[in-house]
Specification:
The chain is mainly alpha-helical. The chain has one domain: Orthogonal Bundle (Arc Repressor Mutant, subunit A). The protein is about 45% helix and about 10% strand. The protein has a three-stranded antiparallel beta sheet. α2 packs across α3. The N and C termini lie far apart (about 45 Å). GO terms for molecular function: DNA binding; DNA-binding transcription factor activity. This is DNA-binding transcriptional ArsR family regulator. Keywords: DNA-binding, Transcription, Transcription regulation.
């Protein structure tokens, strides 16, 4: 085996894990659930996750998928179940350099709003594809 074989295997395993993460978070309901759980400063009660536009059994199904993927964990406290995100689960995505993402910064706020159209650079011109190229 060449010296790069081990590196290729590591990259391939990271790619596979990242693909699994994207597959799980590719569902809009699961993505919203993960955002809400990860955006919470502490464990969040399932009763506080808010309206998702789906039935309670569907929410339970998606929470189970997030747990099975290792993106969240939970604990039963009396009648309720509390969830928290496992940030290290996103490391394969970050290690591949695909993007640096934190659920706490993923929820837009007034200070992180995109610039107005007049403030945006002309992407065609910047990329050299516009009429001035």
């Amino acid at each position: 085996m060449c010296q790069y074989g081990a590196v290729n295997q590591l990259v391939n395993s990271l790619e596979l894990r990242a693909a699994e993460i994207f597959k799980v978070l590719g569902d809009p309901v699961r993505f919203r659930l993960h955002l809400r759980i990860a955006g919470s400063r502490a464990a969040i009660c399932v009763c506080d996750l808010g309206e998702l536009g789906v039935s309670q059994p569907t929410v339970s199904h998606h929470l189970r998928k997030l747990r099975e993927a290792g993106l969240v964990d939970c604990e039963r406290r009396g009648t309720w179940v509390y969830y928290w995100a496992l940030p290290e689960a996103l490391e394969p995505v970050q290690e591949l350099g695909l993007f640096s993402w934190s659920p706490a910064t993923a929820i837009p706020s007034a200070s992180s709003a995109p610039p107005q159209a007049a403030q945006r650079p002309n992407l065609l011109k910047r990329c050299g594809d516009g009429p001035d190229a």
